[in-house]
Specification:
Layout lengths: L5 E3 L8 H7 L12 H15 L5 E6 L2 H12 L5 E6 L2 H12 L3 E6 L8 H10 L5 E7 L1 E2 L4 E2 L2 H10 L5 E5 L18 E5 L10 E6 L1 H7 L11 H8 L10 H17 L1 H21 L3 E2 L11 E5 L6 H12 L1 E5 L8 E5 L6 H17 L8 H21 L1
Parallel strand pairs: 1-13, 3-4, 3-5, 5-8, 8-9
Antiparallel strand pairs: 2-10, 6-7, 9-10, 11-12, 12-14, 13-14
Helix pairs in contact: 1-9, 2-9, 5-6, 10-13, 11-12, 12-13
Bound molecules: pyridoxal-5'-phosphate.
GO molecular function, one term: L-serine-pyruvate transaminase activity
GO biological process, one term: glycine biosynthetic process, by transamination of glyoxylate
Cofactor: pyridoxal 5'-phosphate
């Protein structure tokens, strides 16, 4: 098919030419005496993306799932209790990973239309006076449902209970896109991957860890050799890695961080909010609704749209792919068939997104949803024009 393939899944995301060019280079010696000139400032600048001064960043060949595993195996011991909510595909998988490592997971089962249950967490933490719970796991942005969670609220729940548990956050589809404040929220481990907000190819797990988590790593008994924080940290100090790092991806990550910091993390978050709000206006104009039942928690990186009765969400995704060369996300787990997902994170702007909304309108109509063609596009256009004017005035 002629023209660019339209990629609107919530990861991997669109890769800017700047990053693609940065990666396109010959192999080199990762033990060269000047390798640290690339890696040391990169590890330092990554802290700005997580908004941490006290934390330490590790970059592993891997993906977000590997980042989860690094966090768990470095800080906990077999039989330890962790607290987690299951309210989507990714929170569910993180729980399964913990169980596979022999942890005792206290699971709060919630509706897949809600964020993490801050109030329920607070009650459980208050009642846990023996401090059996060693870590609280929260998914900042459930990519399956398009629902965010209140990480600051979870921090408050821990503080109000005077509870010493570690706070681990899955930020795979939020970090480098949404407002994320590792130090301010007292996050002890923040996990992400390269192929979402960082606009990179898949292949890196990026994990930021607090001094408290590094302290816990000293007595943890689960243990990992490859992901071991101590072993990696010793090597990182001099800009090296205790294995062969993905050098080309590190150059890509350098360019990614350059782009993020040039735009400014607050501006990155504001852009994602502006774009997502346009999508929400479109969904509204179509007479459809989003999966999340609290508008305050609607995600700025992915919109999970409920399809009308009688329409198969899977068919919409397949048809958009085959007929219009556009990739949308499908419904995961119990949401299969009931939703489709529009990813709008990373390297996206207004006009790109308007194209996606126009494609969705065609695919929906072709699949039997009688929505007015152009209605969502117009609603998003109006939002973008008004929001653009506000941004221009703020800049003056
Ligand atoms: C994509 C994603 C993951 C899984 O990451 P991989 O890079 O696919 O291993 C985990 N959590 C969330 C919230 C995600 O969006």
């Amino acid at each position: 098919m002629a023209g660019y393939h339209q990629l609107f899944i919530p990861g991997p995301t669109n890769m800017p030419d700047r990053i693609r060019s940065a990666i396109d280079r010959p192999m080199e010696n990762h033990r060269a005496p000047d390798f640290g000139e690339l890696t040391l400032p990169l590890l330092e600048d990554l802290k700005k993306v997580f908004k941490t001064e006290h934390g330490r960043v590790f970059v592993f060949p891997g993906t977000g799932t590997g980042g989860w595993e690094a966090t768990i195996t470095n800080t906990l011991s077999p039989g330890d209790t962790v607290l987690a909510a299951r309210h989507g595909q990714f929170s569910d998988q993180w729980i399964q990973l913990c169980q596979a490592h022999g942890l005792n997971v206290r699971v709060c089962d919630r509706s897949w239309h809600e964020g993490a249950p801050v109030q329920q967490f607070a009650e459980i933490l208050q009642a846990d006076t023996d401090h059996e719970i060693k870590a609280v796991l929260t998914c900042h942005n459930e990519t399956a449902t398009g629902v965010t969670s209140d990480i600051a609220g979870v921090r408050r729940a821990l503080d109000d209970a005077g509870h010493p548990a570690l706070l681990f956050v899955d930020g795979v589809s939020s970090i480098a896109s949404l407002d994320f404040r590792m130090d301010e929220w007292g996050v002890d481990a923040a996990v992400t991957g390269s192929q979402k907000g960082f606009m990179m190819p898949t292949g890196l797990a990026i994990v930021a860890v607090s001094p408290k988590a590094l302290e816990a790593a000293k007595t943890s008994k689960l243990g990992s050799f490859y992901f071991d924080f101590q072993r990696n940290g010793m090597s990182h100090q001099n800009g090296f890695f205790p294995y062969t790092p993905a050098t080309t991806l590190l150059y890509g990550l350098r360019e990614s961080v350059n782009m993020l910091l040039e735009e400014g993390m607050d501006n990155v978050a504001a852009r994602h909010n502006r774009l997502a709000e346009g999508v929400r206006k479109a969904v509204d104009a179509w007479g459809l609704s989003l999966c999340g039942n609290d508008p305050a928690l609607h995600s700025d990186t992915v919109s999970t749209v409920m399809v009308p009765e009688g329409v198969d969400g899977g068919a919409v995704v397949r048809h958009a792919y085959e007929r219009y060369d556009m990739a949308l996300g499908g419904g995961l787990g119990p949401l299969a068939g009931k939703v489709f997902r529009i990813g709008h994170m990373g390297y996206v702007n207004e006009v790109m997104l308007l194209g996606a909304l126009a494609g969705v309108e065609m695919a929906l109509n072709d699949c039997g949803a009688a929505i007015q063609p152009g209605s969502g596009v117009a609603a998003a256009q109006n939002h973008f024009r008004a929001a653009g004017a506000a941004t221009a005035m703020a800049a003056e």
